[in-house]
Amino acid sequence: MLGDAKETPKKIADKATELAGLNGGGCCCVILNTVKQAQAVYAGLSDLPKEQKLLFHARFTAADRERITSEVLDKFGKDTSNRPEKFVLVATQVVEQSLDVDFDHMITEIAPMDLLLQRSGRIKRHARTKDGKLKEEGADERGDPVLHVLLPKEESGKPPKLASSEIIYQRYPLLTTLAQLQPSGGNNTVAVSLPADFRKLIEATYTDSAGSDAAQYLKDAKAKWDDLQEDLAAQAGEFLLCEPMEDEFDPVGHDEVGDASDDGNGWRARTRLGLEDVLVMPLKPEQVAKWKSGEMHPRLVKWLYKRSVKIPPYYWPPKAASGHGKPVLGNKKLKGVWLLPVKPTNGAWEWQGVKKDGKTYTIQYDSTFGLTNGGDK
User: Fold this and answer.
1) Residues 153 and 5: beta-carbon distance below 8 Å
2) Is the pLDDT of residue 290 over 90?
3) Domain-by-domain residue ranges, the chain?
4) Predicted structure pTM score
């Protein structure tokens, strides 16, 4: 339990480097809740050479993310023969998703208990020798798995400051998780036995009652959580498919729901609630003018999409700053995609916009850090 991720990115980077150097070497994964935090911690790994570190998050182009995913599996997959002796992977939640990867050490930012348990399943996942070679049988020689959790900064008598984690996961399940992570005996650790403790830990996280003797801030968080669940259920109901009809099948009935889709039928299946990310296609100014109609060969469409990147929607569409071209919304095969006029150099590019308050902010991209955005949270 190392402290707050927002205030100590260099400290976290140093701890990850230390863990990766234990016992002659090891593979350490650091999981942060936001891209901005992950980029800050990765930047703190200045003492590690480039071949011993990697950044992995969702704000890379499809082509770069495919490359990074392949590298992650090649280094940390079950049967890999290319497992490094010393390496630090800094990632967001993308590393949790359907990847069979195995690390010697892990540091994670606070998250609801069920997600912490899921992340812990990537530590010493497969039985290996001390030097990382896969064992056909027998116990793991690397010792018991340890999950290092980054806890928010707390002041006596005041509610914990959950910062950006609260935006991602909501306050109530984070508070109930924190309550279960309070160490005893002065050793700053909490022992968990899995799978025996799974149910107990998760039920305590999503308990129906905050308890009559709970702190007022916990009761307030529970009330807000209950209201949110009702709102989410109502929103989700708007996107449920209708029952099949005898004469015809209209997936969404006659209600105006969903959004513009590629085939023009006026609806698209939603995979999550809330604001959708904006898909941006960085192009040279002359390419924007040439391709904004969306009339092009499918192979070109595929090539362009693999070089597109998702941008947070908070300040989009912005006004272009002086000297920068205006974003253009594509049509037909590029429907719903913003074409951004930039001057790319070896896969890197930069663009400046102006927010509503008149302040200029910069969107940058390179293949190491991915997207950095002045409007990100």
Assistant:
1) no
2) yes
3) 9-153+161-179+192-206, 278-372
4) 0.86
